[in-house]
Specification:
This protein folds into three domains: 53 residues, Nucleic acid-binding proteins (OB fold (Dihydrolipoamide Acetyltransferase, E2P), Beta Barrel); 182 residues, Rossmann fold; 81 residues, Helicase, Ruva Protein, domain 3 (Orthogonal Bundle), CATH 1.10.8. Helices cover 51% and strands 15% of the residues. The chain is built from 13 helices and eleven strands. A hairpin with a 5-residue loop joins strand 2 and strand 3. It binds adenosine-5'-diphosphate and magnesium ion (MG). Magnesium ion binds next to helix 5.
Length: 392
């Protein structure tokens, strides 16, 4: 009896152990299966993409022609570039055909199979930022007199053009904001757009001249056209110095290209009279190198300096950026005193840094110590920049 029972128990443990391994294997196979399934999906997707590409490559080229007449029952008369006219069918996917449209025509049956997408303004939209900003005047600390001036020069003419008509004066076409980086120039431009419910179009001078070699001038033209179409518009041109720097010699082709782009900008500004509700706000950190042609009367003749904030303004800016923070006994006035030479952007950075110090120490409120450390940290980056300038 005894040995038999032992055997049974023994074999039971073996069975148990085996079962455990099988289950484990099963689990592993399950994971492997899942992974393989995912891979299959990926491979299938890849296959489909390649296949689509292949189909596209095999497709015969389409002819481009003009619509001469649109007729009932999805028929129309088209003209091919060689002048020949055809009476053709329009497939049902093609909607809203008009005389003069450029259309795609298949080579065999000469069916109209699509519109030619000119998408002129669409192209521009890829190169610029267009939005309805949410920044308000209240989110800008200090800069009181600048806000007033912008309200008078940009906001008022957009909101109450009749005031100017009655008196018989033409409001400025735009302004040039100049001053060190991070002082709120972009912010001001956005706030004007918000308060006038205008479209905000942002372009960067350096991008205009670097990215679009040979296209700069055309792009400037298209941008102004888009601005007019979306009016009221605030057209914000950042880093205008990249376009409008004085040039000693315009010998190289690159310089000539920049010059053409700049000339186009000037001519858009000059031809501006009839588009009262497009306002240009340009910004630069380098007013010293600007071509004087840009700021001649009738162009961007309102120059507004946006300097580093004084102590009072720094307090206002700190108030803006700590409004949502939980502070514990932090004297912002004292912080404003400690942040001499800080720009608005650096003040914001100091607030964020202070918050991080609190988080790192597992607190959910920010202390004076956090601010002091944050302020020191930002000052340290200045020293590094200085060293970079000296040795770099
Ligand atoms: N006066 C200010 N009040 C509040 N925040 C400011 C102020 N100036 C700068 N900032 C902060 O710094 C950021 C960068 O400022 P920005 O307007 O881009 O400067 P600039 O265009 O002059 O280089 C802003 O988004 C804002 O958070
Ligand atoms: Mg800016």
């Amino acid at each position: 009896m005894e040995p038999a029972t032992k055997d049974i128990i023994h074999s039971e443990t073996i069975v148990d152990a085996k079962q455990a391994t099988v289950e484990e294997e099963n689990l592993m196979m399950g994971t492997v299966l899942k992974r393989l399934e995912q891979e299959t999906i990926m491979l299938r997707e890849m296959f489909n993409n390649v296949n689509d590409e292949l189909t596209n490559l095999k497709k015969p080229a389409l002819l481009v022609g003009d619509v001469v007449h649109v007729l009932p029952n999805r028929k129309c008369i088209i003209r091919l570039p060689n002048g020949n006219k055809f009476y053709v069918h329009v497939i049902k996917e093609v909607q809203e055909l008009k005389t003069g449209d450029s259309v795609l025509i298949d080579q065999k049956a000469l069916n109209v199979v699509g519109h030619v997408n000119h998408a002129e303004s669409l192209d521009v939209e890829k190169f610029i930022i267009m939005q309805k900003p949410q920044e308000t005047w209240e989110q800008i600390g200090g800069l009181q007199s600048i806000k007033e001036e912008l309200k008078e020069v940009i906001e008022l003419p957009l909101k109450k053009p009749e005031l100017f008509e009655r008196v018989g004066i033409k409001p400025p076409k735009g302004v040039l904001l100049y001053g060190p980086p991070g002082t709120g120039k972009t912010l001001l431009a956005k706030a004007v757009a918000k308060s006038t419910d205008a479209t905000f179009i942002e372009v960067t001078g350096s991008e205009l001249v670097q990215k679009f070699i040979g296209e700069g001038a055309k792009l400037v033209k298209d941008i102004f056209e888009l601005a007019r179409k979306k009016a009221p518009t605030i057209l914000f041109i950042d880093e205008i110095d990249a376009l409008a720097a004085t040039r000693m010699d315009i010998g190289t082709s690159g310089e000539r290209e920049v010059n053409r782009t700049f000339m186009q900008l000037l001519s858009e500004l000059d031809g501006f009279k009839h588009l009262g509700n497009v306002k240009v706000i340009a910004a630069t950190n380098r007013p010293d190198i600007l071509d004087q042609a840009l700021i001649r009367p009738g162009r961007l003749d309102r120059l507004i300096e946006v300097g580093l904030p004084n102590e009072e303004s720094r307090l206002e800016i700190l108030k803006v950026h700590t409004a949502q923070m939980s502070l514990k006994a932090v004297k912002l006035k004292e912080m404003a005193r400690l942040t001499e030479d800080f720009s608005g952007a650096e003040l914001r950075a100091a607030c964020t840094e202070a918050g991080y110090f609190a988080i790192r120490e597992g607190r959910n409120h920010v202390t004076t110590g956090d601010f002091q450390k944050a302020i020191e940290k930002i000052k340290l980056t200045w020293d590094e920049e200085e060293e970079g300038k000296m040795f770099g």
